[in-house]
Write a structure and sequence with these properties.
Largest sheet: 8 strands, mixed
Strand content: 15-25%
Strand order of the largest sheet: 3-2-1-4-10-6-11-9
Shape: globular
Helix content: 40-55%
Distance between the termini: 76 Å
Order of helices and strands: EHEHEHEEHEEEEHEHEEHHHHH
Structural class: alpha/beta
Oligomer: single chain
Number of domains: 2
Number of strands: 12
Length: about 300
Amino acid sequence: MSASPLVSVIMPVYNGERYLVEAIESILNQTFHDFEFIILNDGSTDGTEDILEPYLKNPKIHYHKFQQNQGYAKACNKAVDLARCRFITIQDADDISLPTRLEEEIEVLESNYEVELVYSPVLLIDVAGKILGQWGGKGQQLSKEEAFYELYLNGDFIPNPTVMMRRRHITHIFYDPSLPVCSDFEHQLRVAHDYPIFEISHPLVKLRRGRGHSSMTSHRELNFWAERRILKMIHQRYRRSYPKVTKVHYARAMSNQLLKESRYYASQGNVKKAIVLLALALTYNPFNLGIYGLIARKMLPDRLVSLLKRRR
């Protein structure tokens, strides 16, 4: 029996025909070659299967299909069940991994046994592949306390399509199937609670965003609901285990979450909803300075803001 490859690349795809070839080719053209590529078709009804068919002759590719759509979390869970390797990485079907991604992430994990998860910044691209900007880029190893509290208090900062992880921590569940979105965020919190994580300083993935791109992450209201639920779940789970999530941590995290939601609705011109969310954020943490900054920038008349500035 031949030895298993070092890395399992998992790619769930649902109706992904538009960008699928770019995503697959970006993995097949990596500088690192010791991997298996598990593609899970999550009940696609478009031309996804026709696009996949010629690739299935490649011995690196292992294909599985759900007859009906099960959702991102269940698709990823099944792909992880099929994976044979020590390291697991995720390739989303609408993103592009840069050629050295696998090589650089493996080097971090092989050189730092205590690190459980490595990720990188991303280049944000639009539907045509034009670069819109960059997300992330500190380049640092974070202790489990640093990473966990930063994630919990201030929200997700790990671009999930860049993640590579050891499979040793996946003893029961990978992604929580009860979460329709943001299951990756809940998983990251679990990992950061128990292990250090590492950020590579430069982008290794092009992440598809922008006008005209429909993705799970574009459903903002559903995301907001899931993020609030995760904050409550994590608070209940880690009230007594170090690093602890105290009532004060939970209040600060919820205040920051509601502030983020308020910023979004203010940017969409829905001032009424933004104000309601700000008021709720204040009830959780009246000392959250970001709340007062948003009120000054977005909700006071321009004339009043100018007057306040002159009186300083």
